[in-house]
From TrEMBL, chain A:
Residues 784-867 form the Sec23/Sec24 beta-sandwich domain. Residues 458-496 form the Zinc finger Sec23/Sec24-type domain. It is a peripheral membrane protein. Residues 11-48, 208-243, 326-344 have a biased composition (Low complexity). This is SEC24 homolog C, COPII coat complex component. Residues 1-361 are annotated as: Disordered. Keywords: Cytoplasmic vesicle, Protein transport, Transport. Residues 49-69, 244-274, 287-307 have a biased composition (Pro residues). Residues 998-1070 form the Gelsolin-like domain.
From TrEMBL, chain B:
Residues 605-691 form the Gelsolin-like domain. Belongs to the SEC23/SEC24 family. SEC23 subfamily. GO terms for molecular function: GTPase activator activity; zinc ion binding. The gene is LOC108892659. Residues 400-503 form the Sec23/Sec24 beta-sandwich domain. Coiled coil: none annotated. It comes from Lates calcarifer (Barramundi). The keyword Chaperone does not apply. One of its GO terms (biological process) is intracellular protein transport. This is Protein transport protein SEC23. It comes from the Eukaryota.
Length: 1128, 738
């Protein structure tokens, strides 16, 4: 994204928005028209400076949503700056609500909430308003009402249980508002009324819920509802009690204590306001859990487990909720505490409540989930148990391969697959696996063993050709085996025969990796090679742009300089040996220059090919050489290249012929390999693959937007096909100063399993480090070539769709010209028959590839998951991070063919369906107004929101088309860990650092930032060090060596090396972060209130984004609304 | 006046012109009856060491359609300062610079002895000579090494200011950038794709000069060199190194294949490179090839060794699938090159054919050399190549560039065409005949490369009608105007004006007959026959020739490789015809009827009949066929030699006898271009076949016993002997006359 371009970014942020906002809005309006209006209102109120105005305007403006919209927005944008700092202050609080409101409105709309909003804002506090809102809400909730009534009763019963939660949620969501009241709900009815009056009064129960919802109590009710049975009552009551006190606010507070983790709350007093909305989530959270007692809670299936988990929860539906894993057998116990967090969050928004918002602390917190998972995962994860979900990607854990592939290789969205297609369709939970075949393992885990089955090649099932694996059942005394995938019986070849023991296992079972492990490799025979010929060792070809821009930016000399040393680090399997990878060099602008670097030459020779329309390789001998043999010539060449082109005035470049050249070279040498292309500009020179500038911001948001993500010309698709056929992988390093059409240039890299790196406005001084680290890593990393991957599954399901960087010429074989250790492929499965609970679902991913030493191999990963006939089981054993990985790839592919908005809507819909299905089939009966989330998916809304507001799906005004295309392609091959941190960045407070452990992260929201603190934010691509305006001097001294905030140089890209433990530890942390990611993250120091802060703020994904993305709270409300609609 | 032979010799000496008839029949009808047309062999650059170039420009007739040059045949009115053009009778004023003209003060061009005169054009820039080497790298290392050395040597023969360039080819074509420091650069083109000049210009980045021209007047110098063509003095070392580092084409050649040789594209690029950098400037593209083109445009044979290159047999059977296309390719190249005044030389050294048949037009249209040898590592090639750079007494190359020849005629006669190393410039004019012979329809021809021996055959037509008699004593005049670029860079114009008497064939048939130059006529007819042979089917030509007047040479001509393709490859035929079409009369005569000298103890060396009866055991024979110099030792002599008598002091005379023909041969070898193949053989030697195939088979296995003579050697052939031929001819002549 923009990180590279400081300046550009900044400006766009600040100003463009105004203009932008409008367009942005338009679409939004469709979705959440009302919401905004309200927002603005509040926002304005917010602003310190503007306050006066804000309020003034707010009301009026908000009234007529559309009109006001623009203005408010602007204000908003401005205000943001303020807001950040100020978050803590009460004033700020209001703004948020605003944010949240939008959604509510959505909900409200129906009821005609708008009017209410305005009022809300102004008068948030006043009861009247509330009432108004309530009324409005009610309407909205209308439907719910019925429930309401129902509720009431339940409340009574439940109240006790979940009360606290329950109260807010149900209604709240529907109409954001209700949440607040939650507290009131149960007890509320009584208390509620008191406080909020009508709402509560009658409401807690039903109709009012909406309103109530707004009230903290309500939210609780929701929970309760969910948990009705739950004993929670006590708890709930407690909560309730709060609500009463202060419907909105108070409610919030209470939750914290109860439900969750106080941690959240702690910070958040203000958030409280928001709490209400949170209530919704609570359902899941049931945080009230505190009341673990409820254990019994009648909740549906889940309840049971939950109970264990969180006493309180159970009620709330699923105990599932309690904790992510709660449901799982093993886990249940551990979590108890956790439930809380989730729980607390009642429905957010009852915006009406007067901007009281859902208490962010009360809604499911990613941080809490992550921390809990860490706390829980102390034992090594063994893969022997079928259907066991692994720890989260954010958790450090050791894996023991006991028959299934390590989660580092394969992660599934669901470890309990539905038995039938109907179930799968009903739940809408995507069935997918994210496979990273060549993932690097930590040093304490053994890499896959290599198995040699001799001349006959690997032993395979006769029918489906699955490779020998632990799922093969030996029968007839070991003379035959039955395939676990297709059940076909195959003879065991004599040389492979072995007797069985009394349990039916082969005696040598544990001596053979292919019989006892989930991941291993086979040596392939010549039958598995192209043209039935053992492969040649691969080659690397470096193709360097030497046009004016490339030379001037310093790129050429940096690359040449670096290659001199880097060539000693070409990939090899045995570190003792020299790499067998050969290298070749090409430079180009409008024409291509090949170099003869044969070892016998005194000087390299340059061969210019200017006939770019019909590319060929001008030489054979001397182009691809062994580094050691030709070292002197190569060094001489790399020394001379920058000099030779120092005075170039050629600005035009070609691109298609460059790749063709590399491809032809590999063809001529009859080997697979990789091209490293260092390119600067849009290829406008006359040649195949010539492009024109088509960046047109006017298309954004229109139906034609999708065309911007499609390649401009078909040329590159064909070229990619040829590359794949030859096993020619292309890595592209871009150094653009303007639009280069990444969407088109990236086609070949993406189709060949390569990577695209982009360094916009590259400047040697500031970007060199990042580029060089990327380059080093890219060249050195383990990589396989000319690969074909196939996923076989048990009868009943089938791999139907694949996402990632590769090419497919048929529907089953994933062809990868190259595949490195960082690339993941997401595979989607569909039913084509029934699965059985007994055998579960098996999958085997077999990847045939040529190793960097030129050996042909097969890497096999096996994975078995459970199958279930109960939806509840499915919902108990899903992995949200993987689901998000799938969703993001699904959506990012979708925008190629559909309007972006449609894609976003599809995502929201599917998500709503998943949750609604859960709500309908798994959660304990409760008010329809309640938001109930499955425990293991309680973060789905927050993460999904992050996907929806990513630059790709919802670009800000300053996000270039190239950036979006770049991200789109980048994410398509990310694994789960990368997508996770990309969508929900890691934000670490740095006030205290201890060696050995990282500080606990905080949520990605401005509110969590303390003015006096320093924070580190990591996205996998960017690294920010945010410095609060009033950060302690000692802290600054330790980090920057200066005491003064103003003396910190925001342009620094690395921290000064200071001799104090803090500095050392901080740098250690930064280094360790970088080491974890496949791309080097440049450090940006962001000072509070500095212009650059806008960029930083973009990554505070729980907040409303400048490009119009909803805040977490608002989105949750919206989601609730969607769910309710589905349920009704 | 002396005898006709003397007159002819004098004219040839002075003007380089030999006419078939030296008195012309005065009417069209009579002329046609003469069978042999009025025609001339003209050697434009006949060496005239006694002819000082004149440092001013010629005076031209002011009539736009005439523009004849003032010459000794013009009538001059010294008082009025007027002169009358003897071609169109236009009266012209002398230019002001001729103000001092008078009967006693005549400019050189009016003096009769200056019927041939050379002017130096003072205007225009001096153009450098350009030599572009196009070098095949698909050859044995030994050959390549020899070639590299020859090329390196040639650099020292070039004037320092001459521009040189280097293109090498094998599977790819490389245009080398000269004078780069450090890394050597070359532009590479695939050998399968032809490029036009514009594409080439772009690809070589040669468009820049025009962009920078705006800078200032000094840049006028700039187009004189570019990265690929640089002055010898500047890149001497660099190019020497570059040539030294040339490697055999590195692309692997699998068993049973010919190397892929992109000759067609290489030549195309060479032509294109000069076309866009030095149009209309003298330039020589010197192509060195070690085998046939096997890929891309211009390929003459596939790369499968099992498919041999086309033979005459294949061509007759229309089985030479690449020939037409290739010929077309080279023809278009030849035309492009000639349009721009560039010469293409072909030095083909290979044991097998290299495609000269297809490429012949490159040399033929541009006046380039065609040299055929077995290997670059032979003296034949080495010395021939060295002789290309021969210099005259002034130290200038004996080669001239980018010439145009214009012919002007009196009204009664028109020019029908020319045969020789030239192309038509398509200049229509009053003196162009409607009947084309050879390259006709024009009065101007372009001859891109000229040397002192280059000779054109020009054919004329008498157009005067029978009823418009020419007054007694009238003379027909022809003026040859040759403009060319001298190797010093100067532009020069050589003007030859010649005139012959008209005679009425009915009344003066005797004098016309007496003026017949049978040698010239023979060569002129032979050229015509060869020209037809090239363009028509072989047997037809022989028949045509038989119908024409036939004299002495007919017998040998019919048997010569110029018309007879039997036993010759298509390449050889092309080569022989090429040489025949450009050499002067003397050499051409030798080609048709080789010269045979006999050396024996019986007396001094004597020319003997080219007859099998001349082959005697005690003789040494020296045969000069132009292409071969052959020394043949008779059976006895050979035995003596084998016995080593020549080494015995008492037989010194034998030693001298052996040495005599060798010395004579050396003399011939030294003067001839291209170097003949030198053969030293003896009775029964395998190479004696060259002799046996040339001599008149008066004794064959059929008749030797009948003749019962002891002398001479029987020839094993079914060919008819001269005797039989003559008998037959006589019968024919009589019967047809009847």
């Amino acid at each position: 994204m923009n990180v590279n371009q400081h300046t550009p970014m900044a400006s766009p942020y600040g100003q463009p928005q105004p203009g932008y906002s409008q367009p942005g809005y338009a679409p939004l309006d469709g979705g959440y028209p009302a919401p905004y209006a309200p927002y603005n209102g509040p926002a304005s109120a917010y602003q310190p400076g503007a306050p006066p105005q804000g309020p003034a305007r707010g009301p009026p403006a908000s009234g007529p949503p559309p009109v006001s919209a623009p203005q408010p927005y602007n204000q908003y944008s401005h205000s943001q700056g303020d807001m950040q700092n100020g978050p803590p202050t009460m004033t700020q609080a209001p703004p948020r609500p605003a944010a949240s409101q939008p959604y509510n409105p959505g909900a409200m709309n129906l009821s005609g909430p708008h009017p209410s909003y305005p009022q809300h804002y102004g008068p948030p506090s006043t009861i009247q308003q509330v009432t108004n809102q309530m009324t409005g809400m009610q309407i909205a909730s209308g439907p719910p009402t019925p429930a309401g009534p129902g509720y009431a009763p339940p409340h009574s019963s439940q109240p006790p249980v979940s009360t606290a939660y329950s109260a807010a949620p149900p209604p709240s969501y529907t109409q954001a508002i209700p949440p607040v009241s939650s507290a009131p709900t149960q007890p509320p009815p009584p208390s509620g009324p008191a406080t909020s009056q009508q709402y509560y009064g009658g409401p807690p129960p039903s109709s009012q819920q909406p309103f109530n919802s707004s009230l903290p109590p309500t939210s609780q009710q929701q929970f309760t509802s969910s948990a009705p049975q739950a004993p929670a009552p006590p708890v709930s009551q407690s909560q309730q009690s709060f609500p009463p006190t202060q419907p909105p606010f108070s409610s919030a507070p209470p939750p914290p204590p109860l439900s969750q983790p106080s941690p959240y709350h702690s910070g958040p007093p203000p958030p409280r306001a928001q709490m209400p909305p949170t209530s919704m989530p609570q359902s899941n959270h049931l945080p009230p859990g505190p009341q673990g007692p409820p254990g019994p809670p009648g909740p549906l299936q889940q309840p049971p487990p939950q109970p264990g988990m969180q006493g309180g929860y159970p009620p709330q539906q699923n105990g599932a909720f309690g904790q992510v894993r709660g449901p799982q057998p093993g886990y249940a116990g551990p979590y108890p505490g956790q439930p809380n967090y989730g729980a607390p969050a009642p429905a957010p928004a009852p915006a009406p409540p007067a901007q009281k918002r859902l208490d962010p602390d009360a809604i499911p917190s990613p941080i809490q989930v992550i921390e809990d998972d860490k706390a829980k995962s102390t034992e090594p994860f063994t893969t022997g148990v079928r259907g066991q979900a692994p720890p989260l990607v954010t958790t450090n854990f050791q894996v023991k391969d006991q028959g299934n592939a390590s989660p580092r290789f394969i992660r599934c969205t669901a470890y309990n697959m539905p038995c039938t297609a109907d179930m799968a369709k009903q739940s809408q939970v995507p069935l997918a696996a994210v496979i990273k075949p060549l993932a690097t393992l930590p040093p304490d885990e053994t890499p896959p063993y290599v198995v040699d089955h001799g001349e006959g090649g690997p032993i395979r099932c006769n029918r489906c050709k699955a490779y020998m694996c632990p799922y093969m059942q030996f029968i007839e005394g070991g003379r035959r085996f039955q395939c676990g995938f297709c059940s076909c019986v195959t003879e065991v070849p004599p040389h492979y025969f072995q007797h069985l023991d009394h349990t039916g296992k082969r005696v040598d079972c544990y001596d053979r990796p292919e019989l006892s492990l989930g991941s291993y490799e086979f040596l392939a025979t010549v039958d598995y090679c192209k043209n039935n010929k053992l492969p040649q060792p691969p080659a690397f070809v470096f193709l360097i742009d030497v046009s004016y821009n490339a030379v001037k930016s310093g790129m050429v000399s940096i690359v040449c300089q670096e290659l001199k040393t880097l060539l000693d680090y070409l990939p090899r399997e045995n570190p003792e040996m020299d790499s067998v990878v050969r290298v070749g060099f090409v430079t180009y602008n409008k024409v291509l220059h090949f170099y003869n670097v044969k070892s016998s030459l005194a000087q390299p020779q340059m061969l210019v090919v200017s006939d770019v329309s019909d590319m060929f390789v001008p030489l054979l001998d001397g182009f691809l050489v062994n580094v050691n043999e030709s070292r002197l010539v190569i060094e001489s060449l790399l020394d001379q290249i920058p000099e030779m082109f120092a005075d170039t005035r050629e600005t035009e470049t070609v691109f298609g012929p460059v790749i063709q050249a590399g491809l032809e070279a590999l063809k001529a040498a009859d080997c697979a390999g990789k091209l490293f292309v260092f390119h600067t500009s849009l290829p406008i020179a006359e040649a195949p693959g010539k492009l024109k500038n088509r960046e047109d911001k006017k298309l954004i948001g229109t139906d034609k937007e999708k065309s911007l993500f499609q390649p401009q010309v078909g040329f590159y698709n064909n070229l990619a096909k040829e590359c794949v056929a030859q096993g020619c992988c292309v890595d592209l390093f871009l150094f653009p100063n303007q639009y280069v059409d990444v969407a088109t240039l990236g086609v070949v890299p993406v189709s060949t399993g390569g990577s695209v790196y982009k360094y916009t406005y590259f400047q040697a001084q500031s970007d060199q480090e990042r580029f060089l680290n990327d380059l080093r890593r890219d060249i050195q990393k383990p990589v396989g070539f000319d690969a074909v991957m196939r996923v076989r599954t048990s009868t009943g399901i089938r791999a139907t769709d694949f996402y990632g960087s590769f090419f497919m010429s048929n529907t089953t074989d994933v062809e990868l010209a190259g595949l490195d250790c960082d690339k993941a492929i997401t595979v989607e499965f569909k039913h084509d028959d029934k699965l059985s609970e007994e055998t579960g679902a098996l999958m085997q991913c077999a990847m045939l590839y040529t190793s960097c030493s030129g050996q042909r191999r097969l890497r096999i990963h096996n994975m078995a998951v459970n199958c279930c006939s109960q939806l509840a089981d499915l919902y108990r054993n899903c992995e949200t991070d993987t689901i998000i990985n799938f969703f993001s790839k699904y959506a990012f592919r979708g925008i190629l063919n559909n309007p972006t908005k449609a894609v976003r809507d599809t995502l929201v819909n599917q998500c709503a369906q998943i949750l609604a299905c859960y709500r309908k089939n798994c959660a304990s009966p409760s008010s329809a107004g309640q938001l109930i989330l499955p425990e293991c998916m309680k973060l789905l809304p927050v993460y999904l929101n992050c996907v929806l507001k990513s630059d790709v799906l919802l670009p800000g005004a300053d996000v270039s088309l190239d950036d979006r295309a770049y991200l789109r392609q980048l994410i398509s091959c990310m694994d789960v860990a990368e997508t996770h941190v990309f969508f929900y960045p890691r934000l670490l407070p740095l006030m205290k650092l201890e060696s050995g452990s990282l500080p606990v992260a905080v949520r990605d929201s401005e509110e969590r930032l303390s003015k006096g603190g320093v924070y580190l934010l990591e996205t996998g691509l960017h690294l920010f060090l945010w410095v609060g305006a009033s950060a302690q001097q000692e802290l600054l001294l330790n980090i920057f060596g200066t005491q003064s905030f103003s003396q910190i140089d925001p342009s620094m890209t690395s921290l000064p090396v200071l001799d104090n433990p803090f500095s050392q530890r901080l740098r250690e942390i930064i280094d360790s972060f970088r080491a974890q990611r496949s791309r080097y993250m440049k450090l940006m120091v962001v000072k509070q209130e500095d212009r650059a802060e806008l960029i930083f703020r973009h990554f505070l994904v729980e907040d409303k984004s400048a490009s119009g993305g909803a805040s977490y709270v608002d989105f949750l409300c919206h989601m609730h609304k969607e769910i309710r609609q589905l349920l009704s | 006046m002396a005898t006709f032979p003397e007159y002819i010799a004098q004219n040839e000496e002075r003007d380089g012109v030999r006419f078939s008839w030296n008195v012309w029949p005065s009417s069209r009808l009579e002329a046609t009856r003469m069978v042999v047309p009025v025609a001339a062999l003209f050697t434009p650059l006949k060496e005239r060491p006694d002819l000082p170039p004149i440092q001013y420009e010629p005076v031209l007739c002011s009539r736009a359609t005439c523009r004849a040059v003032l010459n000794p045949l013009c009538q001059v009115d010294y008082r009025a300062k007027l002169w009358a053009c003897n071609f169109c009778y236009q009266r012209n004023q002398f230019p002001p610079s001729y103000a001092g003209i008078s009967e006693v003060n005549q400019p050189a061009e009016l003096l009769p002895q200056f019927s041939t005169i050379e002017y130096v054009v003072q205007r225009g820039p001096q153009m450098p000579l350009v030599f572009l080497y196009v070098v095949d790298t698909c050859m044995e290392d030994e050959d390549l090494q020899a070639l590299k050395e020859s090329l390196q040597m040639s650099l020292s023969l070039l004037p320092p200011t001459a521009l040189v360039g280097l293109i090498t080819f094998g599977r790819m074509v490389q245009v080398h950038e000269l004078g780069c420091e450090g890394i050597s650069k070359s532009y590479v083109f695939r050998g399968t794709k032809d490029l036009n000049a514009k594409q080439l210009q772009e690809m070589l980045g040669l468009t820049k000069p025009s962009a920078t021209q705006g800078r200032g007047p000094q840049t006028a110098q700039q187009p004189l060199s570019n990265r690929f063509l640089q002055p010898v003095q500047k890149i001497d070392m660099n190019l020497t190194d570059l040539l030294g580092e040339l490697q055999r084409d590195p692309w692997p050649v699998t068993q049973g294949k010919r190397p892929l040789r992109s000759l067609g594209v290489a030549m195309s690029i060479a032509v294109g490179l000069l076309e866009c950098t030095f149009p209309n400037t003298g330039a020589r593209i010197m192509t060195f090839i070690g085998g046939p083109a096997t890929q891309g445009p211009g390929m003459v044979v596939g790369d499968e060794l099992k498919t041999p290159i086309r033979s005459w047999h294949d061509i007759e059977k229309d089985n030479a699938k690449f020939m037409k296309k290739a010929t077309k390719h080279y023809e278009s190249l030849a035309n492009r090159a000639s349009t721009n005044g560039h010469i293409i030389d072909i030095y083909a050294c290979a044991l097998d054919q290299t495609g000269l048949l297809e490429m012949k037009c490159c040399a033929n249209y541009t006046g380039g050399y065609m040299v055929m040898a077995d290997s670059f590592n032979t003296s034949l090639f080495k010395q021939t190549f060295q002789r290309v750079f021969t210099k005259d007494v002034q130290g200038s190359f004996k080669m001239a560039f980018a010439a145009t020849l214009e012919v002007k005629t009196s009204r009664e006669i028109k020019v029908s065409g020319a045969i020789g190393p030239c192309v038509s410039l398509n200049a229509k004019g009053p003196c162009v005949s409607e009947n084309e012979i050879g390259t006709g329809g024009t009065c101007q021809w372009k001859i891109c490369g000229l040397d002192p021996s280059t000779t054109l055959a020009l054919y004329f037509e008498v157009v005067n009608q029978h009823n418009a008699p020419i007054p007694q004593g009238g003379r027909g005049a022809i003026q040859f105007v040759t403009q060319y670029q001298h190797s010093s860079g100067q532009r020069r114009i050589r003007v030859t004006t010649t005139a012959r008497n008209w005679a009425d064939a009915q009344t003066q048939i005797q004098s016309i007959a007496a003026s017949f130059d049978q040698e010239a006529a023979a060569i002129l007819m032979a050229r015509l026959a060869v020209y037809r042979a090239e363009t028509e089917e072989g047997p037809d030509v022989l028949r045509w020739l038989d119908r024409q007047l036939i004299r002495l040479f007919m017998f040998h001509l019919r048997r010569s490789p110029f018309l007879q393709v039997f036993n010759n490859s298509p390449d050889e035929s092309s080569y022989y015809r090429h040489q025949f079409n450009r050499q002067d009369l003397t050499q051409a005569l030798i080609m048709i009827q080789p010269v045979l000298y006999a050396y024996s103890f019986n007396g001094p060396p004597e020319p003997v009949l080219l007859d099998s009866s001349s082959i005697l055991p005690d003789r040494i024979l020296l045969m000069d066929t132009f292409f071969q110099i052959l020394i043949y030792h008779g059976e006895t002599v050979a035995q003596w030699r084998k016995a080593g008598y020549q080494d015995m002091p008492e037989y010194e005379n034998f030693k001298h006898l052996l040495q005599a023909p060798v010395d004579d041969a050396q003399e011939l070898l030294h003067t001839r271009f291209p170097m003949p193949r030198y053969i030293d053989t003896e009775h029964g030697g395998s190479q004696a076949r060259f002799l046996l195939s040339k001599v008149n088979p008066s004794q064959t296995h059929n008749n030797m016993y009948a003749w019962g003579q002891e002398s001479g050697a029987p020839i094993l052939t079914d060919d008819v002997s001269l005797q039989v031929f003559m008998d037959h001819l006589k019968k024919l002549a009589v019967s047809s006359a009847a």
